[in-house]
Amino acid sequence: MIEIRRASRWYGQVIGLNDVSCSLGPGITALLGENGAGKTTIIKMITGQIKPTTGTIEVMGYKPFANPEVYKRLGYCPEIDAMPEHMSGRGFVYTMARMLGMNDKQAKLRTEDVLETVKMADRADRKIGGYSKGMRQRIKLAQAMLNDPDVILLDEPLNGLDPGGRREYMGVVDGLAKRGKCVVISSHILYEVEQITRNILLLHRGRLMATGDVRVIRGLIDKHPHRIRIETSEPRRLAGLLVERPYVMSVKVEPGDRSIEIESREPDRFYDEFPSLALEHRIPVHAFSSPDNNLESVFRYLVGK
Amino acid sequence: MSAVFVFQHTLQELARPRRLIVWLAIIAGIGLLAANLTTMARQVTSLDAYIQISGGMVFKVLALSSAILTAAVVAQEVEQKTIVYMLTRPIPRPAMLLARFFASAVVAMALALVAAVVVTCAVYGSQAFSNEIFFRDLRALAIGAFAYGAVFLVVTLLINRSMPVCLLFAFGWESIAPNLPGDTQYVTIFGHLMALAQHPQLDNSAGPLGALAGQMGTNVIPENVAWAAMFGLIAVCLTFACILFASFEYVPREDTD
Predict the structure, then answer these.
(1) For residue A54, what are the β-bridge partners?
(2) C-beta separation of A206 from A38 below 8 A
(3) In chain A, which end has fewer C-beta atoms inside a 10 angstrom radius, N or C?
């Protein structure tokens, strides 16, 4: 449905997207990358808001830039929260429906349908100015589904949704994918993407670094020694206990520091066993975090740094 | 059909009571001034008062409202980042632009016409609609709304944050140039509108209102030339605006960082 061939986009002296080629078909595809990776640039090119500087993009066989034929079959949920603040959610979705060419009756019916789907029907008469971020995300999704599009682009759609809202949102998106729609979701959170789809495009500084199954990416993280930082008031005692474990490769204690950093090749086993170890030996743990459990570390592995 | 809806929707948006209330207050203020001008200055006749208030204030309201309302066509949507919704609808971009432009021009025209009615009523009372200049003013205001709007539309598409430029044009150039000797009035919209309105040259036109009404210069533009110039200007500006908007790329500043 979407074909991108050697597409690059420059913003003056800055490159937003660098020689990207890929094709996207039915099902959910996640555009994964940090802020500034080029996710929004790809989405803007697919939605025909900007043109590639070089290369080509085709959506359902058409060049998308300012092309009404594409917009008839495309739904777009932008990242920005900007909407007409004085309008009600229902009024906004209805207006979008009319601009899609529906008459008054069709637009009203379809507006109610999509508001029900995103569970906003009972709150849609309030002014958008008073909406939370989560409610705005739902209204944006509702307007993107109005024309039952074949291609739906959702730019960072889970930002601002609470866990329940995320589950509901993902359920709606999953339903669209099951009906054979091509759904493209951008995100900068690996964990979030894993829950939605296995099919990813990994972008880093405008380049397509990897495509395919998200489990391969997860494997890349797990193959490398995984650093975990633990904050405790008894760092030396905890270090002594951990160094005996076979899955711990190294333990580092900085003098005067109230934390330790370990390296492990089996992070899952560590996460499973660590709570009982801390409880058994009554070691207070204030916090722990993994500086490797993020996209930046994946990019480091991929570029070989 | 969608473009018709865009026109109706834009019209509703621009004519919201909250937006109109300021304009109505300004028009009421002009009406009060018009009603009292002859009383405040005894040497000012009804004709003097009408010509000065109409040329010096009603036509300025037209320029100001055109500048502000035309900004809502595209520039305001860009600033508020709601333009993404406009750009991703299955409506050809020129149709979208023209539908929104005509709505803004209609509201600007309506405001100016209401101001003209208020002024003629305030000055002439029961004789308000026997004033021939008033009817010539109406047609000049009507075409002026589209002419100012078309020029400002191009400016808003070419320049980010274009309001100061539009206001400088409306109140600076359009106030000064018609009073200059020679042919500079040919390169103003106001000069052509005055040619259509055919305001008589007043004997007693000194002062700021007279200057704003362009009474310090002599209008030499023939009426037929004024009509042709206004229609030509509107056609050229709207064609250019459609070409610009058809290739318009929306790139928010943060995307280029």
Answers:
(1) A8
(2) yes
(3) C
Residues A18 and A39 placed together within one structural domain of the fold: yes
Kindly list the residues from chain A whose CB atom is less than 8 angstroms away from the CB atom of residue B85: 78, 83, 96, 99, 143
Query: Which among B204, B211, B2 is positioned nearest to B90, based on CA atoms?
Result: B2
Residues 6+ apart with CB under 8 A from A77: A137, A140, A141, A143, A144, A152, A153, A154, A155, A157
The enclosing domain of A97 has a CATH number of 3.40.50.300
Picking from A194, A220, A246, the residue at the C-terminal end of a domain is A220
Mention every residue, 6+ apart, whose C-beta is less than 8 A from residue A259.
Answer: A229, A230, A231, A232, A235
CB contact (8 A) between residue A50 and residue B249: yes
| Count of the separate structural domains present in chain A | 2
ipTM score for this prediction? 0.84
- Domain identity same for A257 and A198: no
Exposed / middle / buried, residue B251 (Cβ in 10 Å: 0-12, 13-18, 19+)? middle
A61 and A169 share one domain:
yes
Same domain, A157 and A274: no
Q: Which residues in chain A have their CB less than 8 angstroms from residue B249's CB?
A: 49-51
CB contacts, 8 Å: B244 with chain A: none
B254 neighbourhood in chain A, CB within 8 Å: none
Model-level pTM?
Answer: 0.83
Q: Do A86 and B249 touch (CB under 8 A)?
A: no
CATH number of the domain within which A293 lies = 3.30.70.100
Last residue of a domain, one of A220, A249, A271: A220
* A52 and A201 co-located in one domain: yes
Nearest beta carbon to residue A82 from set B6, B82, B251: B82
- Say if residue A82 is in the same domain as residue A231: no
pLDDT tens string for chain B (257 positions)? Answer: 788 999 999 999 999 998 899 999 999 999 998 888 777 766 778 888 888 888 888 999 999 999 999 998 888 888 888 899 999 999 999 999 999 999 999 999 999 999 999 999 988 888 878 888 899 999 999 999 999 999 999 999 998 888 899 999 988 888 888 887 778 888 899 989 998 988 887 766 556 777 676 666 676 788 999 999 999 999 999 999 999 999 988 776 554 43
**Does A102 share its domain with A250?**
no
Which chain A residues are within 8 Å of B247, Cβ to Cβ? 66
How many angstroms separate the first and last alpha carbons of chain B?
Answer: 39
> A282: domain range?
224-302
- Cα gap A60→A73, rounded to integer Å: 9
Q: Are residues A9 and A70 in the same domain?
A: yes
Chain A residues in contact with chain B using a Cβ-Cβ cutoff of 8 Å: 11-12, 14, 16, 36, 40-41, 44, 47-51, 66, 68-69, 71-72, 74, 76, 78, 80, 82-84, 86, 95-96, 98-101, 103, 143
